[in-house]
Write a structure and sequence with these properties.
The chain is α+β, with helices and mostly antiparallel strands. Helices cover 15% and strands 36% of the residues.
């Protein structure tokens, strides 16, 4: 995965939400959502799961937030976002194994995109551990109602900034999900950090209604740069 001012173009993809959802308010605090992997007619998709309501409140969510330092005792580790949901509500078979594949590479925000970071992160769950240098797979057991929390850790020598990891979800019998991302705040002002999150949402995972327009704009942007 390259992190040098990436701009991607997309083609429109229409998805039908086949499970009960509720509208998300515009000012919902996204960093409190767990990652919900759900079944859309045989294809895995990601959304935001709210454990307070036990509902999938953001069915098309592909960018998640995390803030290092929420626990002062562990300033460089965090166990959010978790992997959450209820098997029946998300259309997944209880007892199945959900695999999250972390792509190799860690990005750091440069103010207008992401560059390759000169540091590293690890993600641990039980006996499994994957690092940003090589990437790798983490397995989670789907039960009737689950709230699972891997531990994300960044090198303590890392500079203040916003960092990003890319993932995808897989399960036997289902088509894999599109990529999704977690953006981590290491000591940045919240407003500066939100700029990195919003850029990620606009450039990596635009809302379905914005896909065509963004694809055209991205193509024009690349043509201008090449010219």
């Amino acid at each position: 995965m390259s992190f040098i001012n990436i701009t991607r173009s997309f083609v429109p993809v229409l998805a039908t939400v086949s499970i009960a959802t509720v509208p998300a308010a515009a000012d919902l605090d996204e960093e409190h959502f767990d990652i919900a992997v759900w079944n859309d007619g045989g294809t895995l998709r990601t959304g935001g799961w709210d454990h307070d309501t036990e509902m999938l409140v953001e069915p098309e969510m592909r960018v998640f937030e995390a803030h290092f330092g929420e626990d002062p005792s562990f300033p460089f580790s965090i166990d959010e976002p978790g992997i959450g949901g209820a098997a029946a509500d998300l259309g997944l078979p209880a007892g199945a194994t959900l695999t999250l594949r972390m792509a190799a590479g860690l990005g750091v925000w440069n103010g207008s995109g992401f560059d390759a970071a000169g540091t590293s992160m690890t993600v641990d769950y039980g006996p499994l551990s994957v690092g940003s240098a090589m990437g790798g797979d983490l397995d989670f057991l789907i039960t009737d109602d689950y709230d699972l929390h891997p531990v994300y850790s960044i090198d303590p020598t890392a500079a203040t900034g916003a960092y990003i990891l890319e993932f995808s979800a897989m399960m036997d019998g289902f088509a894999s999900s599109e990529s999704f991302w977690i953006v981590f705040n290491l000591g940045l002002d919240d407003l500066v950090f939100e700029e990195a999150v919003e850029w990620t949402e606009a450039n990596y995972a635009p809302a379905p209604g914005a896909l065509v327009a963004f694809g055209v704009a991205g193509l024009a942007s690349r043509r201008r740069r090449r010219g």
